[in-house]
Amino acid sequence: MIGKLRLTNSxxxxxxxxxxxxxxxxxxxVCGPTVYSDVHLGNVRTFISFDIxxxxxxxxxxxxxxxxxxxxxxxxxxxxxxKISEKARLDKLEPMEIVQKYTNDFHDVMKTFNALAPxxxxxxxxxxxxxxxxxxxLLDKGFAYQANGSVxxxxxxxxxxxxxxxxxxxxxxxxxxxxRVLDSQExxxxxxxxxxxxKAAPNHIMRWKTKWSDGFPGWHLECSVMxxxxxxxxxxxxxxGMDLKFPHHDCEIAQCIGxxxxxxxxxxxxxxxxxxxxxxxxxxxxxxxxxxxLISGDHEMLDRGHSPMSIRFFMLQSHYASTLDFSNDxxxxxxxxxxxxxxxxxxxxxxxxxxxxxLNVDTALVAQVNKMCDNCHHAMNDDFNTALTIGHLxxxxxxxxxxxxxxxxxxxxxxxxxxxMKTTLLSFTExxxxxxxxxxxxxxxxxxxxxxxxxxxxxxxxxxxxDVLRQRLKEEGITIKDMKDSLGWAYNx
Length: 493
Ligand code: AMP
Ligand code: ZN
Known about the structure:
This protein has helices at about 40-60, 85-90, 95-110, 130-140, 155-160, 170-180, 220-230, 245-260, 290-295, 310-315, 330-350, 365-380, 385-405, 415-430, 445-460, 465-475; strands spanning about 5-10, 15, 25-30, 65-70, 145, 150-155, 195-200, 210, 215, 235-240, 265-270, 275, 280, 325, 480, 485-490. By secondary structure, it is of the alpha/beta class. The chain folds into three domains: about 20-270, Rossmann fold (3-Layer(aba) Sandwich); about 300-430, Isoleucyl-tRNA Synthetase, Domain 1 (Orthogonal Bundle); about 445-490, no CATH class. A five-stranded antiparallel sheet has the order 5-6-7-9-8. β3, α1 (about 40-60) and β4 form a beta-alpha-beta unit.
């Protein structure tokens, strides 16, 4: 192993040496999606970031158990209705049909972007009994109370012996002053007390009978239950997007400590937001992009489609804890880098070190290549710095291209160094960054090329070519529309 992995722990706000509780086993829990709508590119960024972390930990030789949940009940809208229930009501479907559809879609998206599947993907509904059990323990320990069929976490009581808000650094007094008066607030002892079990309104579809009421579990509870069930009461890494730090993760910590008196996760990792014009990409703000829109290029902000791997590469060009701003220019800019990388890797794979040729080793070059390889490890060890790693990979690629162009002779580097360079480039690109080779052809981009050709033929009065292009496209189902100042197309009618 080269160097040691350090990561930024959101709990301590410091960069710390990574030391798993039961090395070489590592337990990692990441909050998964609420399956009531299509995942947008922002969600994808977070899950790709944790995919990299999972991949790198495995690369380092750890035995990782990666748990990422599916939220299928309990995540409420501001109106107090469950997100999945509302969608089921609007679409006139069973809630489980909504859950199944968006879970399937989520898996397809993750596969498209070459994210490894988690080792366990538990769902909240599948863990209702365990959630009820945790509520009972919290009631027994005096950290929860019943009110009007619901059960709430008692923050005043908890704060007598613990400190709520430690992860996000918020103070309970400030939060009380800022809090809004929401639905069923009057049942609570403290406006910040959060629901562990919620009594369902008469029209609420998703509900289960308990001694407290006909109701459903609070959103924060599922993650405390499922993380500790599969990873133990103390596990290594807990992750999610920055926007989950408060209240979701602070609530999780309070529930776990209230139940077992143990700090659940040793390291908390938070990914930063994908933004559009500096604003968080989010469905509710109406600025979200769906993965397929980027792939096809069917969006007013985009002038072309991008392959899944070039989108993945775009995401990795910034550190996971920094924001990443999304734009047509940024994507096109990163496409150049991606293409360079993909071409370099293709060349490298075909490159064979010549046998039995006399060596004339350039020791400075050999030292330089070895340093570049070391740097890739150091960059990933530095809090999974994919941006820096890509920079070092490009330095190595320059050497590959020089070998290919015969600007450097193979004789100048020994086989061991060449092999190390090859292994480093391939394993970092494909195994760690998860950039796999792809032969991706975007129909819309190709059509644009043909239309440009057509426009040029028209401008130069090459009418034979104009007719041929028009006819060939027609045979493929496309009718060219000549307009006054522009060119359009339509499917044949
Ligand atoms: P949700 O299904 O809304 O709970 O989101 C799933 C994951 O995506 C959570 O970890 C969120 O923090 C994360 N997320 C949501 N919006 C963005 C964004 N714009 N950029 C990065 N991550 C996001
Ligand atoms: Zn969660």
